[in-house]
Amino acid sequence: MATSTTMVVKDPFPRAPTPTPRVPSAFRLITKRTSYQSLRSPDLLSPMSPVAPRPFPAVEPPQESPGWEHINVISPSTASHHSMYSDSDDAFRSPRLALLTNNLLGSHMQQETEGIRTLISPSAPVQQPGDELLYDVGTEAAPDERYFHADFQAALAATKQEMKDISLAMWGCPASHRIGSDLHHLKQWAQNLSEFEPTRTRTVGLVGDPGVGKSSVINSLLDQSDLAHSSVDSGHSTPVITEYRYRPAHHDEPFGMEVDYMTTEEIRELIEELLRSFRACYIPAFHDIDNLEERQEIRTRSDKAWHTLNSMFRSQPIFTKDFVLQHTYDTEMPLVHIFEKWAAKFLTNRPGGFDARTWSSTAFNIDECRDKIDAFTSDPIDEDTAALWPFVRVVRVYLRAAVLQSGLVLVDCPSLRDLNFAREKATERYLRNCHQIFAVTTMKDALIDKGVLDIVKRNGRHRPLRIICTKSEDINVREVERSQPDISLQVRTWRQQIEGLQKQVKRCEAQRRHGVSGALEEETRSRDMLEDIEYGLKRFLVERRNCSVATQLIEKFAADVQHGDLKIFCVSNKDYFDHRYDEQIRAETRLDLSGILHLRKYCHSIPADAQFEAAAAFINHDVPAFLGSLKQWAVAGLGDMNAEKAEALKHLMQRLEETAIKKFILPTAQIHQTRSSLNQDFVTGIISPIKEHRSAWRKAALEKSKEWSKWDGKDYAAFCRHYGNHSSKDTGQQSWNDDLLAPMRDQLEGNWDFFHENVEERKRGLKLSIVTDFDEICQPLKERSTSPASPIQTLLSTIPHRISTIQHIIETNFSDLLEGTQQLETDALYGHVSSYISNLMSPAYHAAAILPSKSPVSPTTPISASASSPASSRASSRSSSPSTSPASSPTDNPSPELLDKQRKELITAHVVSSRLYSKLGTLIERSHRGFTSIVFSNIHAAISREIDALIRDMHLVVPPKDVLVNKLGAGGTGHTPNYSYNGGSPQESLENVIPVRGPSRDGGGTEEVEMVRGKSEAEQYADFAGRLKARIVLAERVVLGSREVVEGVRGMSFGEGGEGT
C-alpha cells in the first residue's frame, strides 16, 4: 500500500503570519515513529532535552520568524488530541489515552511557555533499508473485474492527471484567484475532478458471536493489526455498529472518526426495553417457565441488560438493583422518566453537547484513532463515570486501507442473539440494508454454531450469504494421525521428519554457541528446511479440512439461501499477521494459506461493477463537460458582433436560461412530476388494496388467533415472550407475524412486482424527457451558430455531455430507489424482528408476557444464584440480590388457567381492535414517501449543479457590454472609474479605451469620458487564454483515448478466475 512521505506542518493554535524563517539550525525533527516512543521518556521533558520548550519573545508580523531552535515540534498523537478535544471532553477519553495524557500532557502541553510555537509533524513512517524486500499488499492480484483491468486503471489515472495539470495551469492566471470569477469556479471544478474517487459503495456486514474472531478478520482485511478490538476480555459484547470506510488522500490526517448519537426517542425506547429485559427474571411469570434453556436465556438477557443500565447510570448514588426492582409502574414519577432525566444531564457534557447528533475528529496514527474510538465503545476506568457507548448508534472509522479503496464499507455488527429487543431491531434493520452478509464462526464449531443458524434464518431465501470460518490453523497433528486412518501413515512420516529436524536445529544452535566452525550456516540451512517441511504438512492438513468443512456447510445451508448462492471462506488471522512482514516470495505462499488474500480479493470484487460505472461516467461525461465549459471560457468575447446582434443574443440567452430553469428546476419540471406520479402509482397499487381488503384480512387474522388459542398455555406464553417467533415440540417452528401477513402477502406480491415495473417505466420516461427538453434549448442555438469555432457552437458541443451526465444521475438514483423499494416490500410483507408488523404487535406480546401483576418485582430473586455476574467490586454492591419488599409483592396469585385465558384474550383483542392493517398501511406509505423524497432530492440537487454550469456557459456566450465612464472630473483631478463586467466584479484593466472630450455635465468645465470596450476574462488575459486553448486540445486527446479504453473494457467478457478477453 502506497504511503505518503510529504511532511505536513500544522499549527493548531491561532497565530500571526510567519515571515521567512532564518537559516535552520541542526534541530532534530521528531517524526511520528520516533516521537510517539520518545514521549514516554522522561528525557523529553528535561530542560536539557533538544525538544524541550525554550522561551523566546513573541513574534510580530514585522519581525523575523524564529529559527528551528525556537520551535517545539511534538508528536501528532498527543498534539492532535489536545487540539481536537475541548476541556469538557476530558471525562470521555478512553482509559489508555486518559492515563497517557494525564501523565504526559500535563507538563508538556497544558503548561506551555508563552510564545512557543507548537507544530505538528505528521510524517510517514521512515522507510528502512530492506523494506522493499518485505511483503507489499499492493502486489496482490486484483479481481477479474472491469474496474481493475490494467488499461482501465491507466486511463482513469491519466484522466485525473490531466485534470490536475489543467488545475495547476489555471493557477498562473490572476483571474483564477478572484473569488466569484468564472475562472475561479472552473479552477475549483478542476481540482475536484483531479481528486475523483468513485462514490458508489457496497456495504458488507460481518456478524458473529463474541470470541469467533470477527474483529481479527476485520483487522486482517484492513491490514491493521490492532484497530478493531474484541470484547471477549470485558465479558460483554458492545452493541455498537462500527463502519470502516475509505479516507481519500487529500485529507491531511490518515484517520477520521464520526459518531452518530441516538435520538431522544431512541434513548427512551432503549431504556424501556432494558428495564423489561432486566425485570424478566424477577416477575412471577418467570417461575411458570419449565424449559431450562429458555430460563437460562432470560437470565443471560437480564444480566446483559443490567450491565448496560449500570454503564449508563452508575454515576448516580441511588442507582442499585433494589432501586430498579422496587420502583413500581404506578408511582408518581415513572422510572423511565427518571432515567431519561439522568441521561439528559449526563449527555450535556458529552463531546458535541446534548443537541449534537454527530461528533467527528481525526487522528495521525492508529493508536490515537483507537484511543478516541474507545471513549465511545468501552466503559471508563473510573467506576463512578457513566459510559457513552449505550447512547451511540453508529461509529464510523475512515482510513486508507487498500480493501476499502475500491468502494467497500466493512461493518462490524454485534451478534443479534446478545442484544435486547430494541437494539436487535435496529441492528437487523441495518443488516437488511447491507449488500452482503458474512456470518463469522470458527472451524471447530462451524456446523453447530447457533450464531450461524440464527443468521441463516434471519437472512432467509431472499439474499445470498457468505460464511467465514476462522482459526483454520488450529489443527492437532497427533489427533489427525489418530482419527483419520486414510492419511495416518503419511502424517506420521511427516511428523517424524519434523521432529528429527527440530533436534538437528538444536544441535546446530548449541554448536554455534560453542564457536564450532560452520555451525551458523548449518543451523540456518536446517531451520529453513524445518520451516518448509512444517509448512508443507500444515498446508496439506489445512486445505484438506477447509475443503471438508466448506462442503458440509454448503450441503447444510445452500437450500436456505437465495439461488443456493453460498460462499465459504476459511481463514487464519494468526497466520496472516505471523507472516505479514516476511520476505515477499516466502510471504506469498504463507499468506495464501491463511485465506485472507482470497477473502480480500473477493471483497474487492463486491463493489467493482458499481465503481466501474461511476468511473466510466467520470471519463465519458463529467470530464468532457468540464473541458467544454473551460473552452467556453477561453473563447468568450471572440468574434465580431454588432450591438444589435449582441442585444438579440442576450435576450435569447435569457429566454433559454428561463426555459432551463423551468424544465429542470422549478416545481413544474418533469422530475417533480415523475416523483408525484410514482407516489400515486404506489398509492394505487399498494395502499388502496390495503384499505380495500383490510376487513377481510382482519377476519382471517381473527381466525388465526383462535387457532393459536387452542394451543397449550405454556407454549402460548413462550410465543409471547419471543415476540411471536418461536418453536416448540407440539407447534413446530411458527411465526405469528408471518401468519398475520399471509393473506396480505398473497394479495400484494403481484402488485409490488407491477410497481417495480412502473419504476423502470418512469425512469425511462424521465430520461427521454431530458433529451426532449435539451432539444428545445438547442434548436434556437443551432439556428444562430455561425462557425465551428464560435462560442455558440462550443456551447452546443458541450450539451450532449450534460445530457449524459444527467441521465447517469437518474440511472444511479433510480437504482437506489428500486433497491429501497424492494427492501420496503420485505419489511411490509414478512414478519422478521425489524418488520412493520413486528413493531405493531410487540406491545401486545410484551403485555401478555408479563401477566399477571402490574408490579415488575417478584418477592423472590431469580432461581439461579448466577443471575448476574458483576465485573467490579462496586458493581457487585449494586448487583447484590434485591431485598424483599411489601411494595413488590403481588396481591393476588391468579391460577394458570386464568392467566392463560387473559393472555389469549389480550392478543386476540389487539389483533382485532387495534386497526392493525390500517396502521400498517400508514407506516408503509410514510416510509415510501420519505425514501422517495430523499432520492428525488438527491436527483434534483445533482441536476441543479449541471444546470448551473449550463447557465454559466450561456452567460459566457454573450459579449460584454461597452461602458461609458468618467476619467477626469472637474478641475482635472483623475480618478479610477468603477464599472461592472457582465454585472459581475469590477474591472481591473483599462486597455483599448476610446477617449472622448466634452463639456462637464455640471457646467463646471470639461471632463474626459471614455468608452471602454467590455472585455471577457479571457480577453483580459489573452495570452493565457491562447495557451489554455492549446492545452485543452491536448487534454481532449487524452480523454478521447481514455473513452476508447472504457468502451473497449466494457466490451470484454469477465469471469471469476479468468482474465478479460
TrEMBL record:
InterPro entries: DUF7605, Dynamin_N, P-loop_NTPase. Residues 204-457 form the Dynamin N-terminal domain. Gene3D superfamilies: P-loop containing nucleotide triphosphate hydrolases. This is G domain-containing protein. Residues 1-24, 856-898 are annotated as: Disordered. Residues 693-849 form the DUF7605 domain. It holds the Pfam family Dynamin_N. Residues 856-896 have a biased composition (Low complexity).
